[in-house]
Amino acid sequence: MSLSLSNQQLVPEPGSNGGAGGQRGDQQGGRAERPEDRGALSAEGGAAAAGEGAPASERRRRRSDDPITALHYQLSTTRSEANLDVVVLVDDSGCLVAGAGAWPACEELAAYAPLLANPDAVQNAAVGSRIAALTAEVEVQSLAVAGGEVLLCGRGGTAERGASIARAAAGCLRILRAAA
After folding, report:
1. What is the pLDDT of residues 47-61, one digit of tens each?
2. Spatial distance between the Cα atoms of 170 and 143, rounded to a whole number of angstroms
3. How do strand 96-100 and strand 138-145 relate by DSSP bridges?
């Protein structure tokens, strides 16, 4: 799959098998065309003609049949809507599954996520102080998926970030269950 950077988002090139149906290029006025500018996306990932594809009530603008890409879209939307610095989905050992935000910040939050979810497991004073500092600015939600656990964490935003993380959790569960 070929990817290009468009408006600071990864958008698959036309004809690639990326599932998001993005396109790069200038339109009148020098503005780059984005998938959401062209209407609904079909299940195959290409742009649908007006009146075709997704129902008129479809709220999602970017879709993908690839679970990792779909998770990224979910987290990216949550990050934007909740004004979060970073949002990540990690396994129970702290391995990053998907994230949105600056990559180093995603990696850091992923590594600390299991300890943020279970602060009693902290054995080191230096790590404990970092966990204490992060706790005030991080929302963590545990999700049970196919007999395992994943953690959804968002850092930054406002105190209302919990509602955004809860909506993202429902979306992540839907994506992960469909992939299982």
Report:
1. 333 344 555 444 556
2. 9
3. unpaired
